Amino acid sequence: MKPLFLITARGGSKGIPGKNIRPFLGKPLLYYAIDTARALAPDTDICLSTDADEIIRAAEAYGLSVPFKRPDQLATDQSGSYEVMRHAVDFYRQQHRPYDTLVLLQPTSPFRTAQHVRDAMALYADELDMVVSVTESASNPYYNLFEERADGFLERSKTGNFSRRQDCPAVYAYNGAVYVINLASLAEKPLSEFSKVRKYVMSPHDSVDLDTPLDWAFAEFLATHGSLTANP
């Protein structure tokens, strides 16, 4: 496996303005992702993809060179992660630095550690499209998730005769922390079309993802009350 570690950090966050460089427990949120990647690879195999000058300056102040500034067309609310990943991979291919695997680390998972990433990478095999980090979901389509029928009434999303959620088949939600992606698969199709996907399960605590001010406050509460320690 020859992985490129990609950190994606767009500047135009609306849920938490400026979140990627906003201090979390005393240092910019972005630095947690950089620290994780640096525990696994040299800086030459770490790529920060961003459209924002202030994020570039923050990374360079932390000693990480930023190889390019993301094009404006890949920095809108409508821009997809697939195009951003392909842009980064193509950049290195043009530099005659091909990789066979992409490890995507989003900055919004401050409790993800290098060990989490190592464990996910250990599950990867060439025949897979991806290994992705997940957490077991408390909402279950066999029990407490419903869809509206054409007549306006609700019915369970999946049929099953379960009286307790604990008896239902486990279901999982992507937590956004770790993606280990086969670049041969990515060259053919986006992640949503991958069929050979293996899960890497993380605890609900470690799966905290910062998307809203409430998420941020909750993560700070967990960290300051000793339930969690953010990735050093």
TrEMBL record:
Lineage: Bacteria, Pseudomonadati, Bacteroidota, Cytophagia, Cytophagales
Residue ranges the record marks as coiled coil: none
Superkingdom of the organism of origin: Bacteria
One Pfam family named in its UniProt record: CTP_transf_3
Gene Ontology molecular functions: N-acylneuraminate cytidylyltransferase activity
Keywords assigned by UniProt, alphabetized: Nucleotidyltransferase, Transferase
Name of the protein this chain belongs to: Acylneuraminate cytidylyltransferase family protein
InterPro entries, per the entry: CMP-NeuNAc_synthase, Cytidylyl_trans, Nucleotide-diphossugar_trans
